[in-house]
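Q: How do we represent a protein-ligand complex in a form that can be generated token by token?
A: Start from the inputs.
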Amino acid sequence: MELNQFQQSILNGIPDTLPALKDYDPGINHAPKRKAILSEQEKKLALRNALRYFPEHLHASLAPEFALELEKYGRIYMYRYRPDYKIFARSINDFPHKSRQAAAIMLMLSNNLDDAVAQHPHELITYGGNGAVFQNWAQYLLTMQYLATMTDEQTLVLYSGHPMGLFPSHKDAPRVIVTNGMVIPNYSKPDDWERFNAMGVSQYGQMTAGSFMYIGPQGIVHGTTITVLNAARMHSKPGETAAGKLFVTSGLGGMSGAQPKAAVIAGVVGVVAEVNPKAAVKRHEQGWVDELHSDLDELIVRIKKAVANKEAISLAYLGNIVDLWEKLAEENIHVDLGSDQTSLHNPWAGGYYPVGYSYEDSNRMMAEEPEKFKLAVRESLKRHVAAINKLTSQGMYFFDYGNAFMLEAGRAGAEIFKNDGTFRYPSYVQDIMGPMCFDYGFGPFRWVCASSDPSDLSLTDRIAAEILEQMYKEAPQEIKNQISDNLTWIKQAEQNKLVVGSQARILYADAEGRIRIAEAFNKAIAEGKLKGPVVLGRDHHDVSGTDSPFRETSNIYDGSSFTADMAIHNVIGDSFRGATWVSIHNGGGVGWGEVINGGFGMVLDGSDDADRRLKNMLFWDVNNGISRRAWARNKEALFAIKRAMEVEPRLKVTIPSIADDSIIDGAFSK
Ligand SMILES: NC(=O)c1ccc[n+]([C@@H]2O[C@H](COP(=O)([O-])OP(=O)(O)OC[C@H]3O[C@@H](n4cnc5c(N)ncnc54)[C@H](O)[C@@H]3O)[C@@H](O)[C@H]2O)c1
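Then emit the structure tokens for the protein with nicotinamide-adenine-dinucleotide bound:
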């Protein structure tokens, strides 16, 4: 399609006449059929709701078609209205616009719906099975039309994908405000989501899906690399590097598939078990895992050689992780780091394959003999934990990777508890990401080059590396490692070929790092060194944006981890300090009703306004969370917030007095 035809389609919005019916493309990965949950009355309501987007003369034609979609797929996606042009992150200049900021937002949301990036693109799902950008194609068409015609004196309001409209505002206001899945707290059970979503009134935005900030698998590779590096460091002698350390884990699926690549970037020997040969072969073909092994004896020989030679290498074991752990324990192999990324958040329907059964037998059993399958999973988890316990007693460091491993192992009766009833092993946020990153303000700073030109990304990599190099020289000892890890990462990023979709990059930085890198990008745009604007953002796995008691805020120990004030304050604060768009979501990562998370996007265009906004907003976006973590008495956050107050005299944060344990204990014994 010609560029001007694409632009005209965007400007047309929802067409007045019926577009041609679309075939259901079996070559595309489609969302599963959603469970039928609506009553007959509610089905009529869903249909009435869907027809609101179309002129009355089309209702008689569309009603039976949409009713059929609801029956067949559990949702009304309005497939007929999926555009004929290819959706992807084109250059910002290709999107019709009156506001450059709005054009950047079109680029970002197009990336989230690109066939090459999105998990179920025709159902407008970006990742995680249900992370939606919009609920239906009418919302997409209308939103693109609003974005193409709006000015910098207006703000677009999106309610769970529905564009409520353009409202007058001003040039410093966000161009778009996104809310996803916000419901009255008592109505936040998974079935509530199913019902509201089927009626077309709410959606699950996950984290970066509904906030237009998804950048493909790069984000998870980076996060996993940082986790492995820090885990290795925690268990190293002074002066020792990660080289020659052995990291054993499982899973080569969606997120878990990042583990072997991360292990190699971190410089360790990574061994990952995967029962599904298709998943393992796919990762091998992609170059994300170096070698495939199906014979345990041969694998042990290879592991010993790799460790002795300090190779940075990833080895996949085509088999069950329990067999691998038991073999390692039996052979008395010293394992430095251990984890697990089977999908234990979904144990009975394919998330975890029990030891002793072939992959095919397990698949048959879970459908035909579900009770027998449950028993097999429980037995397997007991053996799984027993082997891990043996290796940890010999010095291995094991951590839970946010996949409900310990929760399900505990429910299965495995020996995963300490005497006081708490889990034997820490979660990766409690031990690693929380105290080493979030409490110091280090988090997932990301950017996208809106020219969509790889040479712009290359230049931003070099600029970021220069800034980190300067910062490393000046930084206090407490944060030097974080800076140097990210320096190594950014220097290798281009050669590691991490881009899928938009020209995007991620690294972890603290408030100072994020501000200094952003300032340098803005200057390079003003000087014409970069060909187009740069969009800043982050994912929600960060210091301030997310209240999630089982993940991001699991290292908050003052009893406030089930409150969500921080996330709400964060999005409000970002919105009046210069964000180009903001989002706040119920759910994401750990599930609907389990987390409140917010994000932002900020367009840098080389202007003085952009320079003012970035300093103001990024400072808040990081220090808000540090102050809350400091108030929770986290030592690292206290260090970071005191340092921030020295740099910025206008920052005055309430600092906790730390009560002595003997005074507290004594007070109750009287
Ligand atoms: N990587 C992260 O940063 C991160 C963060 C939070 C949570 N998680 C969690 O990690 C889990 C994995 O995520 P995913 O997207 O990779 O899921 P996925 O289902 O795509 O992959 C899991 C893989 O584990 C394999 N597997 C299952 N049982 C096995 C066994 N006994 N032995 C060997 N292999 C086995 C499966 O075949 C599958 O390929 C999820 O529960 C997710 O919520 C990951």
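The mean pLDDT is 95. The radius of gyration is 25 Å.
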